[in-house]
Design a protein that fits this description.
This protein is of the alpha/beta class. It has 14 helices and 7 strands.
C-alpha cells in the first residue's frame, strides 16, 4: 500500500533503514568517510517527516552512548559523524526556533526561514493519550480511518503476524540484554528504540494513523523475521510454512488490491479535479474560480496547471491557514458572475444553478464540473 501512495512522509521508512545500515557499517569498518556518509544520511532523514525530529534524536542518543560504552566508537568519530549531521539539521533547528517564537527572522546567504502557515509542534500533547489509546492496536495491525492505508481484512502486516511481533519483541529484549552484558554490537538496540519511541509518540500526536506511524513497521517486520528464524532454527519446517502462508496471503492480497479494491478506491485520490483543472487551464480565461471542497484543494489544481513554484510563492494569499488564491486561481466566488472566468465546482449547489441559468456550458469530469461561457 505504501508503494502505491506517493506520500512524502513514507520516505522515513526507507531512509532510516539506509541510515542505520551505514552507521553500523561505519562502526564495523572504522573508516572516517563512512562516518561522514552516515551523518549525511541521518541529516537527510530529518527532512522525511516531522516525527523523525524526535525518533532520530532518541535513536542516535542510544546508539552513540551504547557504542561508546562497548568502545566501538570514540569521540573523534562522533565529531566526524556529527558535523555533516549538524550542518544539515541547522535549517530545521532554526525553522523550529523561529516559528515557535524563540528567535527573530533569519536570512542567511544560503537559505532563509519562512513563516509557516501553521506550526505543527502543537500537535503533540499529553492530552491526546486518552483519545488515542484505543486506536493504537488498530493502527499497528489492522487499519485506520484512511481507506488507502490498509485493507481491513488483511491488516497492515497480515493479522496472523500479530503474535509473531509480540514474540519477536520479547526475543529482542532478551538478546539486547545479553549484548549489553557481553558488550557486543547489536541491531536489536535501534529496532527496539525506534519501536518504543514511535509507539509512545503515537499516543501523544493528534489524530494518529498508519502514515504517521510508518517508521514503526520496520522494527515490527524485524520482530516477525526474528521469531520465524528462532523457530526455524529449531524446526526447519517452520521456514517452509512461513513461505507458504505469506505467499498465499500475498497472492490473495494482490487479487483483492488490483481487482476488488481498485474498483472502490479511485474516488479517494480525486483524479477528476486534476483533469478538470487541465481542461480549465486550456480555456485560457482570466480567472479560475474553484470550489474549496477538498482537503487543501489548491494542491490538486497545482498538479493540473503546473504553475511554477515561484509564481505560487509570490502570489499565494492565506486566510486562516487556508489558501484563498494564487496567480489567477481563486478558491471563493462572489454573487456576481464573472463572464470571463471559468468555474470549477464539485457539487450541484446554488452557484452551479446560477451559472447554468446564465448560459454557462458544463463540462463534466467525474464528480467535478467545469463551467464557462463559450467565446463568440
Amino acid at each position: 500500500m505504501r508503494s502505491r501512495w506517493g506520500l512524502d512522509c513514507y520516505m522515513l521508512m526507507s531512509m532510516i533503514v539506509i541510515s542505520i545500515y551505514f552507521f553500523m557499517h561505519s562502526i564495523n569498518k572504522k573508516k572516517n568517510y563512512l562516518f561522514v556518509i552516515s551523518g549525511i544520511l541521518f541529516g537527510l532523514t530529518l527532512y522525511t517527516y516531522v516525527l523523525s525530529y524526535i525518533v532520530l534524536v532518541v535513536l542516535l542518543a542510544f546508539l552513540l552512548l551504547y557504542y561508546l560504552y562497548i568502545k566501538e566508537i570514540n569521540f573523534k568519530q562522533i565529531i566526524i559523524f556529527g558535523i555533516p549531521l549538524f550542518i544539515l539539521a541547522l535549517p530545521l533547528m532554526l525553522n523550529i526556533a523561529y516559528n515557535s517564537g524563540h528567535i527573530s527572522k533569519v536570512k542567511l546567504p544560503f537559505f532563509s526561514i519562512s513563516d509557516l502557515w501553521f506550526y505543527r509542534g502543537k500537535e503533540f500533547s499529553l492530552d491526546n493519550i486518552e483519545l488515542n489509546q484505543d486506536k493504537i492496536y488498530d493502527i499497528l495491525f489492522v487499519k485506520d480511518e484512511v481507506g488507502y492505508n490498509s485493507i481491513e481484512k488483511f491488516g497492515t502486516i497480515y493479522k496472523f503476524s500479530m503474535p509473531l511481533v509480540v514474540i519477536g519483541i520479547t526475543f529482542s529484549i532478551c538478546d539486547l540484554l545479553k549484548s549489553i552484558k557481553n558488550k557486543e554490537k547489536t541491531i536489536d538496540l535501534p529496532m527496539l528504540v525506534i519501536f518504543i519511541t514511535t509507539f509512545i509518540l503515537l499516543h501523544l500526536i493528534i489524530e494518529p494513523n498508519i502514515n504517521k506511524a510508518n517508521v514503526i513497521y520496520i522494527p515490527m517486520m524485524y520482530f516477525i523475521v526474528k521469531t520465524i528464524c528462532f523457530l526455524g532454527e529449531r524446526f526447519k519446517v517452520i521456514y517452509l510454512l512461513a513461505i507458504i502462508i505469506y505467499l498465499c496471503n500475498f497472492i490473495y492480497f494482490l487479487k483483492t488490491y488490483f481487482v476488488d479494491y481498485a474498483s472502490q478506491s479511485n474516488y479517494l485520490f480525486e483524479q477528476d479535479i486534476i483533469d478538470a483543472t487541465i481542461y480549465a487551464e486550456a480555456l485560457q480565461r482570466d480567472t479560475v474560480y474553484v470550489e474549496n471542497c477538498l482537503n487543501q484543494t489548491y494542491i490538486y489544481t497545482l498538479m493540473g496547471n503546473e504553475k511554477p513554484t515561484k509564481t505560487f510563492a509570490e502570489t499565494v494569499k492565506i486566510n486562516n491557514f487556508i489558501v484563498d488564491e494564487y496567480d489567477n486561481y481563486k478558491f471563493y466566488y462572489s454573487d456576481d458572475i464573472d463572464e470571463n472566468g471559468v468555474y470549477l465546482l464539485k457539487y450541484d449547489n446554488e452557484q452551479y444553478t446560477k451559472l447554468l441559468d446564465a448560459g454557462f456550458k458544463d463540462k463534466i469530469f467525474g464528480e467535478f464540473h467545469v463551467l464557462y461561457l463559450e467565446n463568440d
